[in-house]
Amino acid sequence: MRINGVQLFIFPHAGGSEVSYVPVEKALLPETVASAICYAGRGRRIREPFQKDMNAMAMDCMSIVREKRKAGLPLVFLGHSLGALIAFETMNYMRRYDMELPELVFFSGRKGPAVAEKKNRSLLSDRELLAHLAIMGGIPDSFLEHPDFLSFYLPIIRNDLRLNDTYCYQQQEPFDIPFVVMNGVEDEHVGTEPALTWKEHTRAACYEEWLEGNHFYFSDTAVFCQTLSRYFSMHFPHLQLPRFKEFI
């Protein structure tokens, strides 16, 4: 049994998949056992129906965490954009079912769950939705002009946006878990003080990191993973992991 390392579960953004985070997973090896959660309806779960609401999505993610959990490794979550919301609600379900909670959580590319985002993006016309995706970035323009890609991708992104559109925050007790709120300096939709919108949901520390880039700032894998590693070193110094030690 491995006892020296960190286990990181990554919750992808709307329309995202495991493939989106392979560079991050590879960059964090071997000290971190990182894996992006595969939501139903894409990737290796392409034949499964989409989750129709946030509760079903959180329950599904909780089951994945339970199945893949490696005993003896500190548990860490990272959620980007819609994935931040999914990670948060997964934590609520884990607490409800008395599961082990993560010891550190990174929330990226989104305001806190109590802040309502612009609704009904899932109801945009194809042209309006494509324009929105082009502004957000993260998908090559050539892909957005390819009919075969769009016929596959648009149903996925619409379902994910529907999860966000229909989400209704329910007041919960704050967690006792340190949060790290990460965003790109060019990502206008997170506002100027996103950490304040997350701070109310934890009694522990809430850190803030701004990195160069837009909504998909984590495409600069080296800087992104250096930031993650710095917080691993801060919160798990007893592990004395080689790569992490350089940040202490």
- Major sheet details: 6 strands, parallel
The H-and-E topology, N to C, reads as EHEHEHEHHHEHEHH
Strand fraction: 5-15%
Number of helices: 9
Low-confidence stretches: none
CATH architecture: 3-Layer(aba) Sandwich
Average pLDDT figure = 92
And the CATH topology? Rossmann fold
Sheet with most strands: strand arrangement: 2-1-3-4-5-6
Shape: globular
Number of strands: 6
Q: Name the CATH superfamily classification.
A: Alpha/Beta hydrolase fold, catalytic domain
Structural domains: how many: 1
Give a topology summary.
Layout: E1 6-11, H1 22-28, E2 32-36, H2 54-68, E3 75-80, H3 82-96, E4 104-108, H4 126-136, H5 141-144, H6 147-166, E5 179-184, H7 194-199, E6 206-211, H8 221-235, H9 242-245
Parallel strand pairs: 1-2, 1-3, 3-4, 4-5, 5-6
Helix pairs in contact: 1-8, 2-3
Describe the protein.
The chain has a single domain, classed as Alpha/Beta hydrolase fold, catalytic domain (Rossmann fold, 3-Layer(aba) Sandwich). α2 crosses α3. The chain is an alpha/beta fold and 248 residues long. It is built from nine helices and six strands. It is 39% helix and 14% strand. Strands 2-1-3-4-5-6 form a six-stranded parallel beta sheet, with helices on both faces. The chain has helices at residues 22-28, 54-68, 82-96, 126-136, 141-144, 147-166, 194-199, 221-235, 242-245; strands at residues 6-11, 32-36, 75-80, 104-108, 179-184, 206-211. The radius of gyration is 17 Å and the shape is globular.
